[in-house]
């Protein structure tokens, strides 16, 4: 199914069969969803449940955050149900939502969190639903909000072992001249950073929790979680990130302090170990230049049957040609992906760095809708999908690795990294003909981990004709 959202217009739905043939097209009016606020909706998840496509949207309606659930018939695209699952009490008490799909197709869970700073209070709980969208149980997450000054939800995941929620809490140690979210400066405030992990086993309302104190030098920003059923442990890859402001000569400069940590927690006694991930094995052959703006962010993790965890991180380096005049400086962003495998103790045992593309832009690029890679996993294999110049398209001036300026003269490729650490690069939608290009819109795609099928909206170009089409590929 393909959904098209447009401001001040009804949602359009296309339905395709397994062979790519269009079966239905529908447009319907909505009573709960506000189609005048489609500029910044936040999609919380799209699930396939009992032959229906279930779409969750976080939208602000009348200054209140609302979670809307839309159910569509999988064969006709007809809207079956439109329901507001929850909404914030008011503009000052904003509710945060995280949708978690159970891997055994037994239903899903939604994590709700309302954090109030003054007076300090917290309402955090997980609601479990069956395949008929009936509420099964509600599990409260106990945390004493009055002990901490700031709170942030780092992540919520459904794993084969159960549901895991990570919440970061900060306590002020020294008050400085900038607030909590401002860039770090000399004389700024000092905070003690902690992360609270909650684990809810399957078919249970019992909550297991542990708190890890990371001290002053770690700034928890987000967390990805997975589990290892054989070792009875769950793993967390946490991104530490915070802006930094400093004096560089006579000017003020800004940077981002980032690091990645691997946390292993035992299911039974909740003992944990933490280790910093440096991607040292993956970056051995990669160019590292600290004079440029480098953004490193873990995007995907999975734990194999042997208990090892694979971390896929998207890295972008913003560069510019200092030899030209400042008004006409050439700038570009280089994208690559690091794949690092660690054991349960967080020791790196294998890694590689895979180049994706070099995208032109006079300023930091407008969006990663085109140039940013998409990362997926299935079984013990990793898949890195990206757009790049196509050297076999009949254009001698277009070479893989050249600066790309847009969709023109590019096609979609993917790397596959298997369990034996063998890396292959292939066309995502098959080898094109001469002067034929099939780049994907990286935010308009979906990967089914059960059957390995990938679907995406592509900007198809043949000669001088350009059109938008749906394309499918099976990632073996």
Give a quick rundown of the structure.
The chain is mainly β and 476 residues long.
Topology (SSEs and partners):
Blueprint: E1 2-4, E2 11-16, E3 22-28, E4 42-49, E5 52-61, E6 64-73, E7 79-87, E8 95-101, E9 108-116, E10 121-129, E11 135-140, E12 150-159, E13 162-174, E14 190-201, E15 208-215, E16 220-228, E17 233-248, E18 251-266, E19 272-277, E20 293-303, E21 309-320, E22 331-342, E23 348-360, E24 374-378, E25 381-389, E26 403-404, E27 410-417, E28 423-427, E29 436-437, E30 440-448, E31 453-462, E32 465-474
Parallel strand pairs: 23-26
Antiparallel strand pairs: 1-2, 2-3, 4-5, 5-6, 6-7, 8-9, 9-10, 10-11, 12-13, 13-14, 14-15, 16-17, 17-18, 18-19, 20-21, 21-22, 22-23, 24-25, 25-27, 27-28, 29-31, 30-31, 31-32
Overall average pLDDT: 85
Strand fraction equals over 45%
As a whole number of angstroms, the C-alpha radius of gyration is 23 Å
Q: For the terminal residues, how far apart are their CA atoms?
A: 22 Å
Question: How many β-strand runs?
Answer: 32
Biggest sheet overview: 5 strands, mixed
Q: How much helical structure, as a percent, in the residues?
A: under 10%
Structural class: mainly beta
